């Protein structure tokens, strides 16, 4: 252990070759590195050494990564936790998110630069948390001193109060970064779910954007808007276990036997998420989004206002986008035809109030021209400050960076590295005017 290094990272993996690779990668790091070949060995080390960040493999004998991180979270809640696992471990990743409170999910085999940046960001957030505690203690001490000042020090008290407010603003920014990281995890997890369906899926990102506009227009709370947004991104989670032949067919063409299987997906999606406290409302919206306004939907036949309003919004935007993409009916519909279908079924399939608000944003979500203000660009031509107009994914459909994100030198270099590794050009689109929509 190097006493000059103030931060420590614990790597846990049952494969000695993996640990050796990590040792080589971080041998010149500015933090202390510890290594364990099992969850049990990792827990023993945690009992004797202070650790800021844990990077754990998912698949390990006796105690898997989710179990290990859950114990580490309960005993050392201040540690930041990162999970290394394969793309196929969807249920295990959900388990780790629920039990282990993971901050990041990184696929194996990892990109060295991506892993280094993830560890640097995690340690930075850990430092912010320590600074937050120190600042709060400092603020409390200073407030006690301020109470003893007399009237002639009033101006000094005002100046000091302003400094404290600036400190609070800095803390708000730090917490906002944490919130954005959680949102990013949801978006990344959504792309993992969507990659299961290849081309036979609805554009959940477009659905989420439209649902957010509708929700904000009817003045829903910020928290409810967020859950509706998450529900749109994850609404197909329950389809992960459906056969390919059912997923490949438009919904209207399914026979009775296939339809019976298909109708299980909302309840399955709700079951997967319901144990995650922070996503309880998201789970409820997903579980009821295929209910019909007249009570003829599934899985339980809810009717009218008994259907959660988030689910009513999700159903409208799902069908409006899905009809245009040819996922619901036999052939794709035009924007006007899709909207006419939605209007004609208001009061039967859809909440009339939601349909009315949809009309305000109909023309903003034309599938054929939704990206008319963008251009495709070669990675070599990218420049810092440009803004991405579409999500950028790797060859497996996993999200690399979300739309509206401003480019930096580091991101551009990462794109170049991915192109070299995958031996293909990335599909990168930017806004023509350099600004987000």
From TrEMBL:
GO biological process terms, semicolon-separated: phosphorelay signal transduction system
Response regulatory domain location: 8-123
Coiled coil: 111-170
InterPro entries reported for this sequence: CheY-like_superfamily, Cyclic_di-GMP/3'3'-cGAMP_PDE, HD/PDEase_dom, HD_GYP_dom, Sig_transdc_resp-reg_receiver
Name of one Pfam family that matches: Response_reg
Any GO MF annotation of the entry: phosphoric diester hydrolase activity
Residues bearing the modification 4-aspartylphosphate: 57
Keywords per UniProt: Coiled coil, Phosphoprotein
Location of the HD-GYP domain: 178-374
Protein name: Response regulator
Source species: Alkalimarinus sediminis
């Amino acid at each position: 252990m190097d006493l000059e290094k103030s931060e420590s990272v614990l790597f846990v993996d049952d494969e000695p070759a993996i640990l050796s690779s990590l040792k080589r990668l971080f041998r010149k790091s500015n933090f202390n590195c510890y290594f364990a070949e099992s969850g049990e060995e990792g827990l023993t080390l945690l009992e004797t050494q202070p650790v800021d960040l844990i990077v754990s493999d998912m698949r390990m004998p006796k105690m898997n990564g989710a179990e290990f991180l859950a114990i580490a979270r309960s005993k050392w809640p201040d540690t930041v936790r990162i999970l290394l696992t394969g793309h196929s471990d969807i249920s295990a990743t959900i388990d780790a998110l629920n039990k282990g409170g993971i901050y990041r999910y990184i696929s194996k085999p990892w990109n060295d630069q991506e892993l280094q940046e993830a560890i640097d960001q995690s340690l930075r957030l850990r430092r912010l948390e320590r600074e937050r505690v120190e600042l709060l203690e400092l603020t409390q001490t200073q407030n006690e001193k301020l109470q003893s000042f007399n009237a002639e020090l009033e101006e000094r008290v005002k100046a000091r109060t302003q400094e404290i407010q600036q400190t609070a603003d800095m803390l708000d920014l730090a917490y906002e970064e944490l919130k954005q990281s959680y949102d990013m995890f949801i978006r990344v997890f959504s792309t993992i779910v969507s990659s299961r369906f290849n081309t036979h899926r609805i554009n959940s990102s477009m659905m989420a954007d439209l649902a957010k506009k509708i929700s904000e227009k009817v003045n829903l709370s910020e928290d409810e808007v967020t859950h509706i947004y998450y529900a749109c991104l994850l609404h197909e989670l329950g389809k992960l276990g459906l056969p390919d032949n059912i997923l490949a067919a438009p919904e209207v063409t399914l026979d009775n036997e296939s339809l019976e299987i298909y109708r299980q997906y909302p309840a399955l999606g709700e079951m997967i998420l319901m144990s995650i406290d922070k996503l309880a409302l998201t789970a409820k919206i997903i579980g009821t989004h295929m209910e019909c306004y007249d009570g003829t939907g599934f899985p339980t036949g809810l009717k009218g206002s008994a259907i959660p309003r988030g689910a009513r919004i999700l159903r409208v935007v799902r069908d409006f986008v899905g009809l245009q993409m040819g996922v619901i009916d036999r052939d794709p519909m035009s924007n006007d035809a899709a909207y006419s279908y939605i209007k004609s079924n208001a009061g039967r399939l859809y909440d009339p109030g939601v349909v009315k608000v949809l009309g305000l944003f109909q023309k903003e979500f034309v599938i054929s021209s939704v990206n008319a203000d963008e251009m495709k660009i070669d990675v070599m031509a990218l420049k810092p400050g440009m803004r991405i107009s579409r999500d950028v994914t790797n060859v497996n459909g996993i999200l690399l960076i979300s739309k509206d994100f401003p480019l930096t030198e580091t991101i551009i270099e990462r794109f170049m590295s991915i192109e070299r590794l995958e031996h293909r050009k990335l599909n990168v689109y930017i806004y023509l005017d350099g600004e987000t929509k």
